[in-house]
């Protein structure tokens, strides 16, 4: 018998960490309402009280793509009892929260960074996505959509420019008027989970529709379609593609704030990391020191000023996040102390009375 959950990306050697509960994967997460798929079907789900109160960090709460342990309540509803460890998580700095990471999707194999070749085209933004995806240790794939809006020369030029900053990530040109999506499909293999990111209007939903085709719309992913059978991006959701791969669309990720993994910057700006190693002084700030390899490269044109400024901006942002996180931890710790001492006082008072 084919294990139903393998069609939802369950790795063959997966060990269920909580065998007392049924294994399920989160298909949708909207605030505290979830939809999960288990061997026995699709359920609406909510977090169990225990899980709700035991998670200190909001990023530990289940997200789209997570493997969870559920207890089935009736034919349609279930409780999520446990959120299992993730093989990977695509996260960004949380919007409006101080130095908190927000998990956008869990257990991801590849992130498709979608950018339109219209006014959406922007190398700095691509670098930001690349840094953060790599900071999460996930493979990035860049898809330049709306190729029909550029001349053939412009397309080639832009693809080359993107290759120049991609540091080894694959770059694919795409248009909705193309008959097939074979080139993209190569990276979306059976049982692998991909996430689409890109700013609003980049062409993500259009691409999801193309990759989903029509046959799978009749299955679980019907909920991803409106009456006209079109996928619409209102919230994150995991769908099955025609070729057996799984795809999560993230709507309008306009803000894609960096968290604090320096690996992302090092991998994306490898040439700058290498140059830094040749500076005369260790700890060179690359601003005014003599014998600075970065300044030399900027002067003779080996390093483009745009790229250097982008690197500096992203580096600063990441440093800020790191410093804010240290501060937040200190504050949390101090608050914890105040709370514990108040608890002890109250216990003592109770003991005396
Ligand atoms: N010319 C052209 N237009 C495209 C192409 N792909 C998408 N579009 C158009 O671009 C607009 C935005 O596309 P969507 O797919 O809705 O963009 P999105 O990234 O899902 O946007 P959000 O849902 O806001 O995150 C739509 O009007 C599409 O028809 C393409 O390859 N060529
Ligand atoms: Zn230097």
From TrEMBL:
Co-factor binding details = Binds 1 zinc ion per subunit.
Provide the CP-type G domain boundaries. Answer: 87-256
InterPro entries, per the entry: G_CP_dom, P-loop_NTPase, Ribosome_biogen_GTPase_RsgA, RsgA_GTPase_dom
Membrane-spanning residues:
none
Question: Which residues are listed for GTP binding in this entry?
Answer: 145-148, 198-206
Name the domain of life this protein comes from.
Bacteria
Functionally, this protein is described as follows:
One of several proteins that assist in the late maturation steps of the functional core of the 30S ribosomal subunit. Helps release RbfA from mature subunits. May play a role in the assembly of ribosomal proteins into the subunit. Circularly permuted GTPase that catalyzes slow GTP hydrolysis, GTPase activity is stimulated by the 30S ribosomal subunit.
Q: How does it assemble?
A: Monomer. Associates with 30S ribosomal subunit, binds 16S rRNA.
Stored NCBIfam families? ribosome small subunit-dependent GTPase A (TIGR00157)
Question: What is the protein name given in its UniProt record?
Answer: Small ribosomal subunit biogenesis GTPase RsgA
Question: Which organism is the protein's source?
Answer: Persicobacter psychrovividus
| Gene from which this protein is expressed | yloQ
